[in-house]
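Thread: Modeling a multi-component assembly for a lab meeting

Hi all, long-time lurker, first post. My supervisor asked me to bring a structural picture of a complex we are working on to next week's group meeting, and I have zero experience with this. I have the sequence lines for every component (229 residues in total). Could someone generate the structure of the whole assembly? Inputs are pasted exactly as I received them:
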Amino acid sequence: NAGVTQTPKFQVLKTGQSMTLQCAQDMNHNSMYWYRQDPGMGLRLIYYSASEGTTDKGEVPNGYNVSRLNKREFSLRLESAAPSQTSVYFCASSEEVGAPSWEQYFGPGTRLTVT
Amino acid sequence: GENVEQHPSTLSVQEGDSAVIKCTYSDSASNYFPWYKQELGKRPQLIIDIRSNVGEKKDQRIAVTLNKTAKHFSLHITETQPEDSAVYFCAALPFSGGYNKLIFGAGTRLAVHP
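Re: Modeling a multi-component assembly
Sure thing. I ran the full set together rather than chain by chain. Output:
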């Protein structure tokens, strides 16, 4: 099992450019997440998907869009990148609340720099 | 909404000493409190968690305690080793209609010196 995978690992964008971060999981989890991690601020939820075809905003959704393509894949899109979006982005997956384990499994992260 | 505060932000100990990291939360309906460890350049990984119907949980050298009345929970690491050096994040799961939407603390950077 690969667990949670993300592409790319690193990306540099110019202000105004767009890009899509890809995430896939092979653990048959219903729930998937996108977080950003900034120094001194922990992990902040951008968007969440409870199941295929559903998405919901997290704490910091502005400037982002998501697509839950199928049960395995959850992508994050930056339509017009801004320097404030320079961060490390983590995708995660888990069972839903009510399942025996609520552990969230994280991908390796994407380090994004917007100049 | 839920707010999780974590202290201290940095912690330096000698190998073999104990380390304690504390978190407070604001939503009394929160019912799940995990701790994640993140080594430098790596992904966060769950090390221990506790649910609101339990006051303490232990796994070898690590333990978590929960005080629901005071709305705080703590991570205890005994007999620290250099490989315990990492950033530790606490989190809380507020009532969110059955969704697993964690709120994370800002993190504690633990350094264990040989």
